[in-house]
Amino acid sequence: MKSTQVVTALSALAQPTRLAIFRLLVEAGKEGMPVGSIGEAVGVAPTTLSFHLKTLTHAGLLDARQQGRFIFYSANFKNMFGLIDYLTHDCCGGNMDACTPAGKPAAK
Description:
Arc Repressor Mutant, subunit A; 6 helices
């Protein structure tokens, strides 16, 4: 991931409603959720929701797909992991045990 993409993604996530939407869709998995369900879950009006979904999609963090008359959004896991990789590149000088949160085993 390029640094400009990282800045755009982090900017998109630096807002409470967008962060809540993104976390909701990460939890929903690859199937994602229809727009109406997203709005209900985060308690956002349709016009406001549309703005936030557009921002997250433009940042490469969400994908949209039409299914019948519904639009489903899902997290773009490839870009999410790209962002995480960018942020953790050479973490702790390559010592993954030092970078692991307390109580969690190191990723192998």
